[in-house]
Amino acid sequence: MGLIACHHMTPHFVSYGLRCACEILGRAMSLQLPNVEAQEDASEIIQAQKVQATLIELLSGEETLIHGLTRHMPTVLDLVPAAGAAICIDEDTHLLGKTPPALVIKKILDWILKQPEREIFATSSLSHLYPEARPWRKEASGVVALLLSKSHRQAILWFRQEVVQTIEWAGNPDKPVKIDGQETLTPRSSFEAWKQTVKGVAHPWKRSEVDAVHDFRNALLHVVLRKSEELARVNAELEQSNAQLDIFADIASHDLKEPLRGIHNYAHFLIEDYPIGVPLDEEGIAKLQTLITLTQRMEDLINSLLHYSRLGRTELVLQETDLNEVVHQALEMLHLRLRETETRVKLPAPLPVVFCNRVSMGEVFYNLLSNAMKYNDKAEKCVEIGVLPSRKPGKVPPTFYVQDNGIGISPEYYESIFRMFKRLHGRSEYGGGTGVGLTIVKKIVERHGGKIWLESEEGKGTTFYFTLSPEVK
Ligand code: ADP
Protein backbone atom coordinates (compact mmCIF):
# COMPACT_ATOMS: atom_id res chain seq x y z
CA MET A 1 0.00 0.00 0.00
CA GLY A 2 1.24 3.47 -0.74
CA LEU A 3 0.06 7.04 -1.05
CA ILE A 4 1.34 10.07 -2.86
CA ALA A 5 -0.18 13.23 -1.33
CA CYS A 6 0.19 16.77 -2.65
CA HIS A 7 -0.67 19.92 -0.79
CA HIS A 8 -1.10 23.54 -1.72
CA MET A 9 -0.97 26.58 0.50
CA THR A 10 -4.08 28.14 -1.08
CA PRO A 11 -7.16 26.59 -2.69
CA HIS A 12 -6.06 25.23 -5.99
CA PHE A 13 -8.08 23.71 -8.78
CA VAL A 14 -6.44 20.62 -10.21
CA SER A 15 -7.49 20.35 -13.80
CA TYR A 16 -8.74 17.10 -15.36
CA GLY A 17 -5.64 16.87 -17.54
CA LEU A 18 -3.34 17.25 -14.56
CA ARG A 19 -5.34 14.69 -12.57
CA CYS A 20 -4.99 12.21 -15.46
CA ALA A 21 -1.27 12.89 -15.65
CA CYS A 22 -0.94 12.25 -11.89
CA GLU A 23 -2.85 9.00 -12.23
CA ILE A 24 -0.59 7.79 -15.03
CA LEU A 25 2.45 8.75 -13.00
CA GLY A 26 1.10 6.88 -9.94
CA ARG A 27 0.32 3.79 -11.99
CA ALA A 28 3.71 3.80 -13.72
CA MET A 29 5.44 4.05 -10.33
CA SER A 30 3.42 1.27 -8.75
CA LEU A 31 4.13 -0.93 -11.79
CA GLN A 32 7.86 -0.29 -11.50
CA LEU A 33 8.09 -0.84 -7.76
CA PRO A 34 7.72 -4.66 -7.76
CA ASN A 35 10.33 -4.86 -10.54
CA VAL A 36 12.86 -2.85 -8.57
CA GLU A 37 12.14 -4.91 -5.46
CA ALA A 38 12.39 -8.20 -7.35
CA GLN A 39 15.75 -7.19 -8.81
CA GLU A 40 17.09 -6.28 -5.40
CA ASP A 41 15.75 -9.54 -3.98
CA ALA A 42 17.29 -11.63 -6.77
CA SER A 43 20.82 -10.36 -6.15
CA GLU A 44 20.38 -10.77 -2.38
CA ILE A 45 19.11 -14.33 -2.86
CA ILE A 46 22.12 -15.23 -5.01
CA GLN A 47 24.47 -13.72 -2.42
CA ALA A 48 22.75 -15.62 0.42
CA GLN A 49 22.96 -18.87 -1.55
CA LYS A 50 26.69 -18.38 -2.07
CA VAL A 51 27.24 -17.72 1.64
CA GLN A 52 25.12 -20.73 2.54
CA ALA A 53 27.07 -23.06 0.24
CA THR A 54 30.41 -21.89 1.67
CA LEU A 55 29.19 -22.17 5.26
CA ILE A 56 27.93 -25.71 4.71
CA GLU A 57 31.26 -26.68 3.16
CA LEU A 58 33.15 -25.13 6.08
CA LEU A 59 30.89 -26.92 8.52
CA SER A 60 31.70 -30.34 7.08
CA GLY A 61 35.37 -29.79 7.90
CA GLU A 62 34.84 -28.51 11.45
CA GLU A 63 34.04 -30.48 14.55
CA THR A 64 31.39 -28.21 16.02
CA LEU A 65 28.61 -26.09 14.62
CA ILE A 66 29.97 -23.00 16.38
CA HIS A 67 33.47 -23.42 14.89
CA GLY A 68 32.10 -24.02 11.40
CA LEU A 69 29.87 -20.95 11.49
CA THR A 70 32.23 -18.47 13.14
CA ARG A 71 35.88 -19.32 12.55
CA HIS A 72 36.18 -18.62 8.84
CA MET A 73 34.97 -16.11 6.29
CA PRO A 74 32.10 -15.82 5.60
CA THR A 75 30.50 -16.27 8.99
CA VAL A 76 26.88 -16.89 9.71
CA LEU A 77 26.49 -13.11 10.10
CA ASP A 78 26.97 -12.73 6.34
CA LEU A 79 23.93 -14.82 5.50
CA VAL A 80 21.40 -12.00 5.93
CA PRO A 81 21.92 -8.25 6.38
CA ALA A 82 22.07 -7.87 10.18
CA ALA A 83 24.22 -6.08 12.74
CA GLY A 84 24.81 -9.07 14.96
CA ALA A 85 24.23 -12.79 15.32
CA ALA A 86 24.25 -15.35 18.11
CA ILE A 87 24.64 -19.11 17.95
CA CYS A 88 23.09 -20.85 20.93
CA ILE A 89 23.84 -24.52 21.52
CA ASP A 90 22.54 -25.78 24.87
CA GLU A 91 24.09 -23.43 27.42
CA ASP A 92 26.78 -22.09 25.03
CA THR A 93 26.21 -18.76 23.30
CA HIS A 94 28.61 -17.43 20.71
CA LEU A 95 28.22 -13.80 19.63
CA LEU A 96 29.15 -12.06 16.39
CA GLY A 97 28.85 -8.32 15.64
CA LYS A 98 26.53 -6.04 17.61
CA THR A 99 24.21 -7.94 19.90
CA PRO A 100 22.78 -7.70 23.40
CA PRO A 101 24.90 -9.53 26.03
CA ALA A 102 24.78 -13.34 26.11
CA LEU A 103 22.62 -13.39 29.25
CA VAL A 104 19.99 -11.19 27.61
CA ILE A 105 20.06 -13.33 24.47
CA LYS A 106 19.39 -16.38 26.64
CA LYS A 107 16.26 -14.69 27.99
CA ILE A 108 15.15 -13.60 24.51
CA LEU A 109 15.66 -17.16 23.26
CA ASP A 110 13.70 -18.58 26.22
CA TRP A 111 10.82 -16.32 25.22
CA ILE A 112 11.10 -17.19 21.51
CA LEU A 113 11.13 -20.91 22.37
CA LYS A 114 7.74 -20.43 24.05
CA GLN A 115 6.24 -18.98 20.84
CA PRO A 116 4.28 -21.27 18.53
CA GLU A 117 6.77 -20.95 15.61
CA ARG A 118 8.65 -24.22 15.20
CA GLU A 119 11.27 -23.38 12.59
CA ILE A 120 11.70 -19.64 12.07
CA PHE A 121 10.63 -16.74 14.25
CA ALA A 122 10.94 -13.18 12.84
CA THR A 123 9.97 -9.75 14.09
CA SER A 124 11.11 -6.22 13.37
CA SER A 125 9.84 -4.86 16.67
CA LEU A 126 10.83 -7.28 19.41
CA SER A 127 10.20 -4.90 22.31
CA HIS A 128 6.58 -4.41 21.18
CA LEU A 129 6.00 -8.17 21.52
CA TYR A 130 8.36 -8.80 24.42
CA PRO A 131 8.56 -5.63 26.57
CA GLU A 132 11.49 -7.01 28.63
CA ALA A 133 13.66 -6.52 25.57
CA ARG A 134 12.99 -2.76 25.60
CA PRO A 135 16.33 -1.80 27.23
CA TRP A 136 18.06 -3.62 24.33
CA ARG A 137 15.93 -2.25 21.52
CA LYS A 138 18.96 -0.34 20.13
CA GLU A 139 20.76 -3.64 19.45
CA ALA A 140 17.83 -5.95 19.04
CA SER A 141 14.68 -4.45 17.62
CA GLY A 142 14.72 -6.84 14.69
CA VAL A 143 15.25 -10.55 15.41
CA VAL A 144 15.08 -13.53 13.15
CA ALA A 145 15.63 -16.86 14.89
CA LEU A 146 16.43 -20.14 13.17
CA LEU A 147 15.28 -22.89 15.52
CA LEU A 148 17.26 -26.08 15.03
CA SER A 149 16.01 -27.92 18.06
CA LYS A 150 13.63 -26.44 20.58
CA SER A 151 14.23 -29.16 23.19
CA HIS A 152 18.03 -28.83 23.01
CA ARG A 153 17.97 -25.00 22.84
CA GLN A 154 19.78 -25.00 19.53
CA ALA A 155 19.18 -21.81 17.58
CA ILE A 156 20.84 -19.11 15.53
CA LEU A 157 19.64 -15.54 15.98
CA TRP A 158 20.28 -12.50 13.81
CA PHE A 159 19.73 -8.99 15.18
CA ARG A 160 18.85 -5.71 13.52
CA GLN A 161 19.28 -2.41 15.26
CA GLU A 162 16.54 0.03 16.01
CA VAL A 163 15.93 2.63 13.33
CA VAL A 164 14.27 5.62 15.00
CA GLN A 165 11.96 6.89 12.33
CA THR A 166 10.55 10.36 12.13
CA ILE A 167 7.44 10.24 10.03
CA GLU A 168 6.10 13.54 8.81
CA TRP A 169 2.37 13.43 8.37
CA ALA A 170 0.42 16.23 6.72
CA GLY A 171 -1.52 16.62 9.93
CA ASN A 172 -2.05 14.42 12.94
CA PRO A 173 -3.22 11.07 11.53
CA ASP A 174 -4.92 10.21 14.83
CA LYS A 175 -6.96 13.40 14.98
CA PRO A 176 -10.47 12.87 13.68
CA VAL A 177 -11.30 14.44 10.36
CA LYS A 178 -13.56 17.47 10.81
CA ILE A 179 -16.64 17.99 8.80
CA ASP A 180 -17.98 21.53 8.92
CA GLY A 181 -21.67 22.51 9.00
CA GLN A 182 -21.90 22.37 5.19
CA GLU A 183 -20.69 18.76 5.12
CA THR A 184 -17.43 19.60 3.36
CA LEU A 185 -14.17 17.94 4.21
CA THR A 186 -11.62 20.33 5.73
CA PRO A 187 -7.93 19.64 6.28
CA ARG A 188 -6.90 18.60 9.79
CA SER A 189 -6.84 22.08 11.35
CA SER A 190 -3.65 23.20 9.69
CA PHE A 191 -1.08 22.22 7.13
CA GLU A 192 1.64 22.25 9.73
CA ALA A 193 3.46 18.93 9.49
CA TRP A 194 2.77 16.59 12.38
CA LYS A 195 5.82 14.60 13.33
CA GLN A 196 5.71 11.15 14.82
CA THR A 197 8.77 9.36 16.23
CA VAL A 198 8.60 5.60 15.94
CA LYS A 199 10.85 3.71 18.36
CA GLY A 200 11.77 0.05 18.86
CA VAL A 201 11.44 -0.77 15.19
CA ALA A 202 14.11 -2.12 12.84
CA HIS A 203 14.13 -2.45 9.07
CA PRO A 204 11.64 -5.22 8.39
CA TRP A 205 12.90 -8.69 7.37
CA LYS A 206 12.15 -9.20 3.71
CA ARG A 207 10.46 -12.33 2.50
CA SER A 208 13.64 -13.30 0.61
CA GLU A 209 15.72 -12.90 3.80
CA VAL A 210 13.42 -15.09 5.87
CA ASP A 211 13.45 -17.62 3.01
CA ALA A 212 17.28 -17.61 3.03
CA VAL A 213 17.25 -18.40 6.76
CA HIS A 214 14.73 -21.15 6.10
CA ASP A 215 16.89 -22.70 3.36
CA PHE A 216 19.90 -22.48 5.61
CA ARG A 217 18.00 -24.32 8.33
CA ASN A 218 17.25 -27.21 5.95
CA ALA A 219 20.88 -27.41 4.82
CA LEU A 220 22.08 -27.31 8.45
CA LEU A 221 19.73 -30.09 9.49
CA HIS A 222 21.12 -32.19 6.66
CA VAL A 223 24.71 -31.63 7.86
CA VAL A 224 23.79 -32.26 11.49
CA LEU A 225 22.04 -35.49 10.51
CA ARG A 226 25.02 -36.63 8.45
CA LYS A 227 27.38 -35.80 11.30
CA SER A 228 25.30 -37.70 13.83
CA GLU A 229 25.22 -40.72 11.52
CA GLU A 230 28.99 -40.47 11.20
CA LEU A 231 29.26 -40.24 15.00
CA ALA A 232 27.10 -43.33 15.42
CA ARG A 233 29.35 -45.20 12.98
CA VAL A 234 32.54 -44.10 14.76
CA ASN A 235 31.00 -45.07 18.10
CA ALA A 236 30.15 -48.52 16.80
CA GLU A 237 33.70 -48.91 15.46
CA LEU A 238 35.08 -47.71 18.77
CA GLU A 239 32.98 -50.20 20.68
CA GLN A 240 34.16 -52.98 18.42
CA SER A 241 37.79 -51.96 18.71
CA ASN A 242 37.46 -51.70 22.51
CA ALA A 243 36.10 -55.21 22.61
CA GLN A 244 38.94 -56.37 20.36
CA LEU A 245 41.43 -54.57 22.57
CA ASP A 246 40.15 -56.46 25.61
CA ILE A 247 40.59 -59.84 23.92
CA PHE A 248 43.89 -58.70 22.51
CA ALA A 249 45.26 -57.50 25.88
CA ASP A 250 44.17 -60.79 27.42
CA ILE A 251 45.96 -62.91 24.88
CA ALA A 252 49.01 -60.67 24.66
CA SER A 253 49.53 -60.53 28.42
CA HIS A 254 49.08 -64.30 28.68
CA ASP A 255 51.61 -65.02 25.96
CA LEU A 256 54.10 -62.43 27.14
CA LYS A 257 54.00 -63.87 30.63
CA GLU A 258 55.17 -67.24 29.40
CA PRO A 259 58.77 -66.22 28.49
CA LEU A 260 58.81 -63.87 31.48
CA ARG A 261 58.05 -66.77 33.80
CA GLY A 262 60.89 -68.71 32.14
CA ILE A 263 63.32 -65.81 32.66
CA HIS A 264 62.29 -65.55 36.30
CA ASN A 265 62.74 -69.30 36.92
CA TYR A 266 66.10 -69.57 35.17
CA ALA A 267 67.45 -66.52 36.99
CA HIS A 268 66.43 -68.19 40.29
CA PHE A 269 68.11 -71.47 39.33
CA LEU A 270 71.31 -69.59 38.56
CA ILE A 271 71.29 -67.74 41.89
CA GLU A 272 70.60 -70.93 43.84
CA ASP A 273 73.01 -73.22 41.96
CA TYR A 274 75.86 -70.75 41.75
CA PRO A 275 76.35 -68.88 45.03
CA ILE A 276 79.01 -66.15 45.11
CA GLY A 277 82.40 -67.50 44.20
CA VAL A 278 81.13 -70.62 42.38
CA PRO A 279 82.12 -70.38 38.73
CA LEU A 280 79.59 -71.18 36.01
CA ASP A 281 79.99 -74.63 34.54
CA GLU A 282 78.57 -75.91 31.27
CA GLU A 283 75.11 -76.35 32.75
CA GLY A 284 75.17 -72.80 34.09
CA ILE A 285 76.20 -71.45 30.70
CA ALA A 286 73.34 -73.40 29.10
CA LYS A 287 70.91 -71.83 31.57
CA LEU A 288 72.24 -68.38 30.68
CA GLN A 289 71.83 -69.27 27.02
CA THR A 290 68.18 -70.17 27.67
CA LEU A 291 67.77 -66.82 29.39
CA ILE A 292 69.06 -65.08 26.28
CA THR A 293 66.71 -67.12 24.06
CA LEU A 294 63.76 -66.27 26.29
CA THR A 295 64.52 -62.54 26.24
CA GLN A 296 64.93 -62.79 22.47
CA ARG A 297 61.52 -64.45 22.23
CA MET A 298 59.99 -61.78 24.40
CA GLU A 299 61.46 -59.11 22.17
CA ASP A 300 60.03 -60.87 19.10
CA LEU A 301 56.59 -61.01 20.70
CA ILE A 302 56.71 -57.33 21.70
CA ASN A 303 57.87 -56.32 18.21
CA SER A 304 55.07 -58.34 16.62
CA LEU A 305 52.56 -56.72 18.94
CA LEU A 306 53.84 -53.28 18.08
CA HIS A 307 53.75 -54.03 14.39
CA TYR A 308 50.19 -55.30 14.67
CA SER A 309 48.96 -52.29 16.63
CA ARG A 310 50.66 -49.85 14.22
CA LEU A 311 48.92 -51.57 11.32
CA GLY A 312 45.58 -50.44 12.69
CA ARG A 313 46.63 -46.87 13.39
CA THR A 314 48.45 -45.77 10.26
CA GLU A 315 46.48 -44.62 7.27
CA LEU A 316 46.19 -47.19 4.49
CA VAL A 317 47.44 -45.48 1.34
CA LEU A 318 46.05 -47.26 -1.69
CA GLN A 319 47.58 -47.25 -5.16
CA GLU A 320 47.34 -49.13 -8.44
CA THR A 321 49.52 -52.17 -7.79
CA ASP A 322 50.67 -54.93 -10.08
CA LEU A 323 50.32 -58.00 -7.87
CA ASN A 324 52.76 -59.97 -10.07
CA GLU A 325 55.51 -57.58 -8.98
CA VAL A 326 54.45 -57.86 -5.35
CA VAL A 327 54.53 -61.68 -5.45
CA HIS A 328 57.92 -61.70 -7.19
CA GLN A 329 59.37 -59.42 -4.54
CA ALA A 330 58.05 -61.68 -1.77
CA LEU A 331 59.52 -64.72 -3.53
CA GLU A 332 62.85 -62.95 -3.87
CA MET A 333 62.94 -62.29 -0.14
CA LEU A 334 62.24 -65.99 0.43
CA HIS A 335 64.57 -67.31 -2.28
CA LEU A 336 67.15 -68.84 0.12
CA ARG A 337 64.49 -70.85 1.95
CA LEU A 338 62.84 -71.79 -1.32
CA ARG A 339 66.14 -73.19 -2.53
CA GLU A 340 66.90 -74.98 0.74
CA THR A 341 63.48 -76.62 0.87
CA GLU A 342 63.44 -77.19 -2.91
CA THR A 343 59.91 -75.81 -3.07
CA ARG A 344 58.32 -75.54 -6.52
CA VAL A 345 56.39 -72.33 -7.08
CA LYS A 346 53.61 -72.17 -9.67
CA LEU A 347 51.83 -69.07 -10.99
CA PRO A 348 49.32 -70.53 -13.49
CA ALA A 349 48.14 -67.13 -14.78
CA PRO A 350 49.23 -63.53 -14.36
CA LEU A 351 47.67 -61.71 -11.42
CA PRO A 352 45.69 -58.49 -12.00
CA VAL A 353 46.60 -54.91 -11.19
CA VAL A 354 44.56 -53.91 -8.13
CA PHE A 355 44.01 -50.86 -5.97
CA CYS A 356 45.71 -51.70 -2.67
CA ASN A 357 48.51 -50.85 -0.29
CA ARG A 358 51.59 -52.21 -1.96
CA VAL A 359 53.76 -52.75 1.14
CA SER A 360 50.97 -54.43 3.11
CA MET A 361 50.18 -56.73 0.18
CA GLY A 362 53.86 -57.73 0.08
CA GLU A 363 53.51 -58.71 3.74
CA VAL A 364 50.38 -60.78 3.02
CA PHE A 365 52.07 -62.81 0.28
CA TYR A 366 55.31 -63.11 2.26
CA ASN A 367 53.51 -64.57 5.30
CA LEU A 368 51.29 -66.95 3.32
CA LEU A 369 54.19 -68.16 1.15
CA SER A 370 56.57 -68.68 4.06
CA ASN A 371 53.88 -70.65 5.94
CA ALA A 372 53.20 -72.71 2.83
CA MET A 373 56.87 -73.75 2.79
CA LYS A 374 57.28 -74.00 6.56
CA TYR A 375 54.34 -76.26 7.34
CA ASN A 376 55.24 -78.78 4.67
CA ASP A 377 56.80 -82.19 5.20
CA LYS A 378 56.51 -83.47 1.62
CA ALA A 379 59.58 -84.47 -0.29
CA GLU A 380 58.35 -82.45 -3.26
CA LYS A 381 57.02 -79.22 -1.82
CA CYS A 382 54.69 -77.30 -4.03
CA VAL A 383 53.14 -73.81 -3.75
CA GLU A 384 50.67 -72.25 -6.16
CA ILE A 385 49.64 -68.59 -6.25
CA GLY A 386 46.69 -67.51 -8.35
CA VAL A 387 43.36 -65.80 -8.80
CA LEU A 388 40.04 -67.61 -9.22
CA PRO A 389 38.02 -66.88 -12.37
CA SER A 390 35.54 -64.16 -11.39
CA ARG A 391 31.84 -65.09 -11.31
CA LYS A 392 30.55 -61.55 -11.71
CA PRO A 393 33.40 -59.17 -12.60
CA GLY A 394 32.84 -55.69 -11.14
CA LYS A 395 30.38 -56.99 -8.52
CA VAL A 396 32.32 -59.82 -6.93
CA PRO A 397 35.92 -58.86 -6.16
CA PRO A 398 38.66 -61.24 -7.38
CA THR A 399 39.58 -64.07 -5.03
CA PHE A 400 43.30 -64.73 -4.67
CA TYR A 401 44.72 -67.94 -3.30
CA VAL A 402 47.97 -69.44 -2.00
CA GLN A 403 47.89 -73.22 -2.06
CA ASP A 404 50.37 -75.75 -0.65
CA ASN A 405 50.69 -79.50 -0.43
CA GLY A 406 51.83 -79.34 3.21
CA ILE A 407 50.68 -80.81 6.53
CA GLY A 408 47.19 -79.29 6.40
CA ILE A 409 45.09 -77.87 9.22
CA SER A 410 42.27 -79.55 11.10
CA PRO A 411 38.91 -77.70 10.65
CA GLU A 412 38.66 -77.02 14.41
CA TYR A 413 41.56 -74.56 14.04
CA TYR A 414 40.26 -72.70 10.97
CA GLU A 415 39.37 -69.68 13.13
CA SER A 416 41.86 -69.82 15.97
CA ILE A 417 44.96 -69.80 13.72
CA PHE A 418 44.16 -66.15 12.96
CA ARG A 419 44.37 -65.28 16.65
CA MET A 420 47.34 -63.38 18.02
CA PHE A 421 50.21 -65.72 19.13
CA LYS A 422 48.22 -68.85 18.26
CA ARG A 423 50.45 -71.69 17.11
CA LEU A 424 49.42 -75.27 16.54
CA HIS A 425 52.86 -76.64 17.20
CA GLY A 426 55.64 -76.67 19.78
CA ARG A 427 57.83 -73.59 20.00
CA SER A 428 60.66 -75.02 17.94
CA GLU A 429 58.67 -77.29 15.63
CA TYR A 430 58.46 -76.35 11.93
CA GLY A 431 61.08 -73.66 12.30
CA GLY A 432 59.34 -71.90 15.19
CA GLY A 433 57.40 -68.66 15.00
CA THR A 434 55.48 -66.17 17.08
CA GLY A 435 51.98 -67.02 15.84
CA VAL A 436 51.43 -63.47 14.57
CA GLY A 437 51.79 -63.90 10.78
CA LEU A 438 48.18 -64.88 10.04
CA THR A 439 46.81 -62.31 12.51
CA ILE A 440 48.59 -59.60 10.54
CA VAL A 441 47.48 -61.05 7.19
CA LYS A 442 43.84 -61.03 8.36
CA LYS A 443 44.10 -57.47 9.61
CA ILE A 444 45.57 -56.22 6.32
CA VAL A 445 42.94 -58.02 4.24
CA GLU A 446 40.13 -56.65 6.40
CA ARG A 447 41.50 -53.12 6.28
CA HIS A 448 41.19 -53.39 2.50
CA GLY A 449 37.55 -54.35 2.99
CA GLY A 450 38.19 -58.00 2.07
CA LYS A 451 37.89 -61.44 3.73
CA ILE A 452 40.24 -64.36 4.32
CA TRP A 453 39.34 -68.03 4.71
CA LEU A 454 40.84 -71.44 4.05
CA GLU A 455 40.23 -74.95 2.88
CA SER A 456 42.46 -77.70 4.08
CA GLU A 457 42.89 -81.43 4.38
CA GLU A 458 45.23 -82.82 6.97
CA GLY A 459 48.24 -84.44 5.39
CA LYS A 460 47.33 -83.15 1.91
CA GLY A 461 47.62 -79.40 2.02
CA THR A 462 45.99 -76.03 2.61
CA THR A 463 44.61 -73.25 0.44
CA PHE A 464 44.25 -69.73 1.85
CA TYR A 465 41.80 -67.55 -0.09
CA PHE A 466 41.36 -63.81 0.25
CA THR A 467 39.65 -60.84 -1.37
CA LEU A 468 40.70 -57.20 -1.19
CA SER A 469 37.44 -55.31 -1.37
CA PRO A 470 33.84 -55.89 -0.30
CA GLU A 471 31.28 -57.40 -2.64
CA VAL A 472 29.22 -54.74 -4.49
CA LYS A 473 25.57 -55.23 -3.52
P1 ADP B 1 53.58 -68.72 12.92
O1 ADP B 1 53.85 -69.23 11.58
O2 ADP B 1 54.54 -67.70 13.39
O3 ADP B 1 53.33 -69.78 13.94
P2 ADP B 1 51.05 -67.82 11.85
O4 ADP B 1 50.08 -66.88 12.44
O5 ADP B 1 51.56 -67.52 10.51
O6 ADP B 1 52.22 -67.91 12.88
O7 ADP B 1 50.36 -69.22 11.82
C1 ADP B 1 49.63 -69.71 12.93
C2 ADP B 1 49.60 -71.21 12.93
O8 ADP B 1 48.80 -71.67 11.84
C3 ADP B 1 50.95 -71.83 12.67
O9 ADP B 1 51.63 -72.00 13.88
C4 ADP B 1 50.60 -73.14 12.01
O10 ADP B 1 50.33 -74.08 13.00
C5 ADP B 1 49.30 -72.86 11.30
N1 ADP B 1 49.52 -72.65 9.83
C6 ADP B 1 49.67 -71.49 9.20
N2 ADP B 1 49.83 -71.66 7.88
C7 ADP B 1 49.80 -72.98 7.67
C8 ADP B 1 49.86 -73.81 6.48
N3 ADP B 1 50.05 -73.29 5.28
N4 ADP B 1 49.76 -75.14 6.66
C9 ADP B 1 49.57 -75.66 7.86
N5 ADP B 1 49.48 -74.97 8.99
C10 ADP B 1 49.59 -73.63 8.91
From TrEMBL:
Domain Histidine kinase: 251-472
An MF annotation (GO) of this entry: phosphorelay sensor kinase activity
Organism for this UniProt entry: Dictyobacter vulcani
GO biological process, one term: detection of visible light
Alphabetized CDD domains for the sequence: HisKA
Catalysis: reaction(s): ATP + protein L-histidine = ADP + protein N-phospho-L-histidine
Listed name of the protein: histidine kinase
EC number assigned by the record: 2.7.13.3
PANTHER family for this protein: BACTERIOPHYTOCHROME, TWO-COMPONENT HISTIDINE KINASE
Entry keyword set: Kinase, Phosphoprotein, Transferase, Two-component regulatory system
